Amino acid sequence: MKLFYSDASPYARCVRVVIRHLKIDGIDEIKTNPLANGEDLLEANPLGKIPCLQLNDGSSLYDSEVILRYLDTELGGGRLFGIRESNWVSESHFSLIKGMLDSAVALRQEQMREEEGKRSSFWTARFEQALLRGLQRIEQGGLMTTPQLSIHQICLACLLEYLDFRHADLKWRKVAPAVASWLADFKDFPALKMTQPD
Ligand SMILES: N[C@@H](CCC(=O)N[C@@H](CS)C(=O)NCC(=O)O)C(=O)O
């Protein structure tokens, strides 16, 4: 199998953490800049996005959630997503974390616009506010503490470290001190340490 990824992508990081944590062998990790529109990536994922997991039969899995569910269910015994029996609220907590990843990456894209004058203060504020509200919700609901290791925790840690990496100005710890102290413990999780972006 081949995983198209980049070090900086928080979505790809979630997948790489899970591969390491579950000790899944046989995946070649191919460092890929999605913006370079490489033929291999576009062939595997017409959206041109990473992460994308190409299976040995040539078929491809994307986006990150599908890859994560595949790894956990087919190769890892299904423990990270847990027994899902209609736990719609828990599913929504996962959607919250994914949506925050989307806001964090969109905020980064906004900041990377070539000309400063083209950056939108409206969208910048909207993405920042969504992130801060999301963090407050996680803080108030204690959503970072689950009885056993969950995919929520892994993706939340990847999100928070991405905020530190790309959006230090957001000062997210001010609105979510309990989440911050949870991360201070969780950051030593071995698979997380192995996948730190430079
Ligand atoms: N919903 C997708 C989002 C993936 C995504 O946006 N990846 C970014 C890198 S962090 C990317 O490939 N961007 C290139 C593009 O948007 O064309 C997922 O969960 O995998």
Which key features would you list for this structure?
binds glutathione, 198 residues, Glutathione S-transferase Yfyf (Class Pi), Chain A, domain 2, alpha+beta, 2 domains, 7% strand, 4-stranded mixed sheet, Glutaredoxin
Explain the overall architecture.
This is Glutathione S-transferase N-terminal domain-containing protein. Pfam families: GST_C_2, GST_N_2. Residues 1-79 form the GST N-terminal domain. This protein has two domains: 2-75, 3-Layer(aba) Sandwich (Glutaredoxin), CATH 3.40.30; 88-193, Glutathione S-transferase Yfyf (Class Pi), Chain A, domain 2 (Up-down Bundle). The protein is 53% helix and 7% strand. It is built from eight helices and four strands. The chain has helices spanning 10-21, 39-44, 64-75, 88-111, 121-141, 151-166, 177-186, 190-193, and strands at residues 2-5, 28-31, 52-54, 60-61. Helix 1 (10-21) links the parallel strand 1 and strand 2 (28-31). The longest helix is centred in the middle third of the chain and has 24 residues, at 88-111. It starts with a strand and ends in a 5-residue tail after the last helix. The site of glutathione has 11 residues, from helix 3.
In brief:
With 198 residues, the protein is α+β, with helices and mostly antiparallel strands.
Topology summary:
Elements: E1 2-5, H1 10-21, E2 28-31, H2 39-44, E3 52-54, E4 60-61, H3 64-75, H4 88-111, H5 121-141, H6 151-166, H7 177-186, H8 190-193
Parallel strand pairs: 1-2
Antiparallel strand pairs: 1-3, 3-4
Bound molecules: glutathione.
